[in-house]
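Q: Hi! First time doing this. I have a protein sequence and I read that you can turn it into a structure. Is that right? Here it is:
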Amino acid sequence: MTTTLISTAGELHARARAGRRAVVMTMGALHEGHATLIRTARALAGPDGEVVVTVFVNPLQFGAGEDLDRYPRTLDADVKLAGESGADVVFAPAVDEVYPGGEPQVRITAGPMGERLEGASRPGHFDGMLTVVAKLLHLTRPDVALYGQKDAQQLALIRRMVRDLNFGVEIVGVPTVREEDGLALSSRNRYLSPAERRTALSLSGALFAGQDRHAAQEALRARAREVPATRARAEALSAIGESRAAADAHAVATAVPGGPAAVRAAARQVLDEAARLDPPLVLDYLALVDPSDFTEIGDDFTGEAVLAVAARVGTTRLIDNIPLTFGTFGAAS
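A: Yes, that's right. Below is the predicted 3D structure, encoded as structure tokens:
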């Protein structure tokens, strides 16, 4: 399809609208993860709607010493991929189009949730992110905006901003897209050497280890509840690979479903091993949090949670996460 490249909000506002407008916000260097967002936007907008992809490297999101200057800028390739994925428009404004008076004096503040995890590691990052998202929502005027779940804290904060400040837009989260080896797709992956990439796989490896432990514990708990007799219960639990010590009827009956502490421990074991690799993985954080506010969950927690990790490999900082559900006696969501 023909994709129009525009650089001003005036051009975008002048376009005739005959259906839903769906917006995908990016900083460029598009990859298959972005393509998935765009294809999902196309489906939501429908044949009569319009899909707009924004390409803007937002200087407010980068702190001192971060990679603003070397962040990849590949606009021609981005327009091509966006068009192949179903975009009608690529909106690629200059900095002075988004911030005509220079850096804005009035900004969105992320609040306490924006000071945790990524916010603690990158002070001011989420204030800058929310400020540009708010401006781009005003500039593009969408009915629906889509964001990847790989940036789980970002997505949670955008949803909170839209709700708290009464933005008239629907926010849709799209599942993380991974490469065949499990590494979450990111524009920063291109910075990794082959050796660094092998180490970087420990991020997803840690998450999958936590997910597997969670699934095993949930299966154990569910099976224990189904078998009334103590002896039969022990045999059933042993059959799924748990030790007979873990089959004690009282312990199983009183165990917390899913075991957040065990999930953290399983993930941390992988990360500890990665810290001894060459090159090593330098952990920033491993957290198991409530997605409503990104605080750590306790052992009695039930409901949706996010297992999140951030680390550096060489000079590249990577993040990843997976959703888990505790207390439903089922596998991870």
